[in-house]
Amino acid sequence: MKVLWLCSWYPNSADPFDGDFIERHAKALALYHQVDVMHVVQNKHFLKGITSIKKEERNTTNLNASIYFLPLPNTGFAFVNVYLFNKRYQAFYKQLIEQYIAINGKPDLVHVHVPVKAGLTAVLLNRKYNVPFVVTEHSSAYFEYIPENYFSRNRYFRFVTKQTFSKALAVSTVSNWLLKRLQFLFSVQQTKLIRNVVDTNLFYPVVSDRERLRFIHVSMMHPLKNVEGILRALALLKEKRTDWEIWFVGPASKENRALTETLGLTEQVQWKGTLPYADVAAAMRAADALVHFSNYENLPCVVNEALCCGLPVISSSVGGIAEIVNATNGVLVTAGNINELTAALAEFLQYKNRYNKNKIAAEAATLFNEKEIGKQLNSWYAELLAKK
């Protein structure tokens, strides 16, 4: 089976965290057969200063990933720049596809990760060569209450998204929550739930006998993660007891650092900054529970990773998180409700022993390990192609 991935997001030198979960999916599938990945960078911030096409590769066993940076047009008019870039993007992708087929032959299947903008290339490839494609969507922006949602985007964005879903052979996501929404909006016929991958060689349980329990929060600290809400809940928790600490892993803003001081939390809070993936895993193994308080979300990798470390997850009940967090492995609270979060944190401190760390980790590892997800992808492809 020859599979070509067209990715709208993918890690690269300018942004190593851009769609890193997609790369982990690719590595999982590569356990079973060859995977070729193409990604043309869309982020205009990272394209500034690029004067000629730049290519880089991220290759491992059975996985060849090619990432391209295109020069960004500069006419002095933003809307004209966007229009010209979109045309250049599609023309360049078409050229890449032609070159790929000339060397490797037609792929048996194309897998699009995130419709905009790579999805349109898959549609054109399907039209010209009759190569079927599937889509995996990772974005939660299909609900009106989410900022910068699908409905607020420009016509081009909505057109590419609709075309991609309508022409796809099948669609997958990492949560049933999003899968049902896509079915409702785009009348998707064939669907598949395939969870995010966790590297269980890095994320595994370690028994600790610390007297001072340690919470951990891991994110890029975007506003949707509601770090401010976590800090305010911690301030209320401190009024009840102080035998705890928390590590924040990710880029800390000046505002959140200042709020930490204002709330009198400097003795409890440690800002660890942005860490390499292996160091994130080490920090997770050294913690006792994950705190996640997003205003909205799909199903973030950090929840899966925490569970594979055996950490109970104390989280807002948003997106697909409730599909994997329950009374045996965590606590769910209402998004934005600081008092509920405070109560959940205090309850964990008092009744930590109700959670079985090794059991939580074992159950999660069964669901999210690389071999299992790779097997699901491989079986999904074979099943779809057998029906054609």
From TrEMBL:
Calcium as UniProt keyword: no
Cross-referenced Pfam families: Glyco_transf_4, Glycos_transf_1
Xref: InterPro entries: Glyco_trans_1 (IPR001296), Glyco_trans_4-like_N (IPR028098), Glycosyltransferase_grp1 (IPR050194)
Keyword Transferase: yes
Glycosyltransferase subfamily 4-like N-terminal domain residues: 85-201
Domain Glycosyl transferase family as annotated: residue spans: 210-359
Keywords from the named record: Transferase
GO terms of molecular function: glycosyltransferase activity
Name assigned to this protein: Glycosyltransferase involved in cell wall biosynthesis
Source organism of this protein record: Lacibacter cauensis
